[in-house]
Design a protein that fits this description.
By secondary structure, the protein is an alpha/beta fold. It has a single domain, classed as Ribonuclease Z/Hydroxyacylglutathione hydrolase-like (Metallo-beta-lactamase, Chain A), CATH 3.60.15.10. The chain is built from eight helices and 15 strands. The strands form three sheets. It has a seven-stranded mixed sheet with strand order 1-2-5-6-7-8-9. A six-stranded mixed sheet has the order 10-11-12-13-14-15, covered by helices on one side. A hairpin with a 4-residue loop joins strand 10 and strand 11. The longest helix has 15 residues. Bound molecules: fe (ii) ion (2 copies). One fe (ii) ion binds next to loops. The site of one fe (ii) ion has 6 residues, from helix 2.
């Protein structure tokens, strides 16, 4: 485990009492890096929130078990079935025989093209459902932006920590534990970029209806917002992030990178880009 002063990828750090982010990030040229985080709530009945990405499976599992003994894990809350969230689900379930998987009917179905999720270990948790995990009640809620229809976020009313899943996604110049490290311009640009990347449909939204959706989440009054693709938000950056989120229906869509961009990158690399190789760690 580490602190924000000694931040390293795949070294969990505490973001609230007994609540830890497992940070990881992907290089994303030419826009820097994208965080790829997950979370552990080490309460009376420990909860894993998402299971990390398969690209770093051994390292992710080691990081998680540095926070909690896998035999103590009682719950695995899967926000949705995207690879960066569910990629290590089966190894996690194998390592945590005492854990119940909190998921949805549709997520299980969407994962069935790759694996059979053990139904006898599942409990369906839909939007608005609550889960008693011993010393706290967790609330599942749909975050305002998402890139998968099964998505549910998680609010822990004991610590006032909100796991926002793919909402508040941002690129960062370098991986960092806290979004306060971004300049005001980087923060604004990152929220606009990440939001439109995750949810390009934001441009179709009725702005007034969307404000009401955002109100519901902001009314939770979270003290800490952690998410898969964002450094942790606290203090004034939380209100600022909600303000930026509210603007998304009214700004032009993000312009995708084009083949001309790819050609320019390849030319700049002057043939030094190695042929694509399978990742050796996906075992
Ligand atoms: Fe996603
Ligand atoms: Fe994601």
């Amino acid at each position: 485990m580490t602190t924000t002063e000694t931040f390293n990828l795949l070294e969990p750090y505490e973001v609230a009492e007994e609540t830890f982010v497992i940070p990881w990030a992907l290089e994303a040229p030419p826009v820097g890096h994208f965080p790829m985080n997950s979370m552990v709530i080490r309460g009376a009945e420990p909860v894993l929130v998402d299971t990390g990405a398969p690209a770093v499976r051994p390292q992710w599992l080691e990081a998680a078990w540095s926070v909690v003994d896998p035999l103590d894990v009682r719950w695995v809350f899967l926000t949705h079935d995207d690879r960066d969230h569910a990629g290590n689900l089966l190894p996690v379930l194998a390592a945590c025989p005492n854990a119940t998987l909190l998921t949805t009917w549709f997520s299980i179905g969407r994962m069935a093209d790759e694996w059979e999720t053990p139904l006898n270990r599942c409990r369906f948790v839909n939007e608005g459902d609550t889960v008693d995990v011993g010393d706290r009640t967790l609330v599942a809620m749909r975050p305002p932006l998402f890139d998968n229809p099964t998505t549910r976020g998680l609010f822990d009313s004991k610590t006032n920590v909100l796991w926002s899943v793919d909402t508040f996604a941002t690129n960062v110049p370098t991986p960092m534990p806290d979004i306060a490290e971004l300049s005001a311009d980087e923060f604004r640009d990152g929220q606009f970029f990440g939001g439109r990347l995750v949810s390009p449909w934001a441009a179709w939204l009725d702005s007034q209806k969307f404000q009401a959706v955002v109100d519901d989440i902001q009314r939770l009054d979270a003290d800490v917002i952690a998410g898969c693709h964002s450094p942790v938000l606290r203090g004034p950056r939380i209100a600022e992030a909600f303000d930026l989120l509210r603007q998304l229906p009214d700004i032009p869509p993000w312009r995708e990178f084009t083949q001309a961009d790819l050609d320019a990158w390849m030319a700049a690399a002057e043939g030094s880009v190695p042929p694509e190789q399978p990742r050796p760690s996906d075992t």
